[in-house]
Amino acid sequence: MNEDTASKSPKALILFGPPGSGKGTQAKLLREARQVPHISTGDMLRERIAMGDPLGRQVQGLMQSGRLVPDEVANRLVDERIARPDCAGGFILDGYPRTIPQAEVLGRRLAERGFETVVIHLKVDYTVIIKRIAGRRQCPVCGTLYSLTSNPPKKADVCDLDGAGLVIREDDQEDVIRERLEAYDRQTRPLIEFFAGAGHALKEVDAGLDGPDAILQRISGLLGNR
Predict the structure, then answer these.
(1) How much is the average pLDDT of 32-36?
(2) Residue 96 CA: distances (Å) to CA of 69, 117, 119
(3) Per the residue annotation, which of 23, 48, 132, 137 is the catalytic one?
(4) pLDDT of 5 higher than 50
(5) Which one of the listed residues 8, 76, 84, 169 is annotated catalytic?
(6) In 158-223, where does DSSP find H-type helix?
(7) Active site includes 169?
């Protein structure tokens, strides 16, 4: 696919970002800005489990035990989803691919369907992420999340809504955060190298200090026209 053809092709945006990078927020903002579906494999798997269909029953035990869903299952879910009419103008992938074999299958499917593959990698210094996540607090009663730096409660360590004492989630402990970041590095670095080596567009975006809207503008500028 030459550059002129690619510029006219619908874009398949593959979004990568470490925990705490704001990837979920950017996925939502990009969906609204570009008016294309946001496809999350995690959401799709949870939907199938809730439906109780054969695939849902197959993956439920795997997810509960913390094991990865087999490549063929993830590939099938994504392939079925991107074949729907609402994806014809492009879409955003979040949480897939997770392995090189998945990336290879996806690359072939996108090429067959005429999509331009664009990888967006949100880069954030890990010291910033650790400070950001370690500063999160949650109300154990209503579930409201606070940030000590950007969205603190009116009264220290107390929920604004119901007065309950705020807690630090287990996943937000510093040692757990470091383990999650190391796992992300191991999993994602080979995928980014794969896509770059395959000649796909790779857009690296500094998502460390600016607010969500500024980061969205940066991404949009790199993507250019739809």
Answers:
(1) 95
(2) 11, 13, 11
(3) 23
(4) no
(5) 169
(6) 174-197, 212-223
(7) yes
